[in-house]
Amino acid sequence: xxxxATASSxxxxxxxxxxxxxxxxxxxxxxxxxxEVGKAGLKxxxxxxxxxxxxxxxxxxxxxxxxxxxxxxxxxxxLRPLIDAGWVEQAAGPDARSWLIQATAGGQAKRAEAQxxxxxxxxxxxxxxxxxxxxxLHALIDESLALLDGAEEAHDEP
Length: 158
Prior knowledge:
The chain has 158 residues and is mainly α.
């Protein structure tokens, strides 16, 4: 890996907390999506979950949590409002200990409505940031996730 140097040949050192910066960006981008998707009666996190369920369902909760990179308890907590609204249902799985999660007809319709709003939010972010910056951001995020996933695997080894 090459090191960027200043005029005095000293390597650059990141300033500030990366976690804080990422959270600030997530909040700012999330506000665009929440404002638009909210017009369909969903938070962006609910839209994402409903979309995964609509695409992958019926699916076991443990598999859905893995697909979404979240814990089972977080999934359970996030599913509750969708179930209460009648957009998602749980049905008995292939064995007594498992449940299958799937979108209802109402959930499919709600997802389609929210998807139109999501597209508007996506276009607003692309317009505001510029397509080149969004493409570069996606690439940087993907690369960073791959590197961090590799670091997690290294920590898991005995």
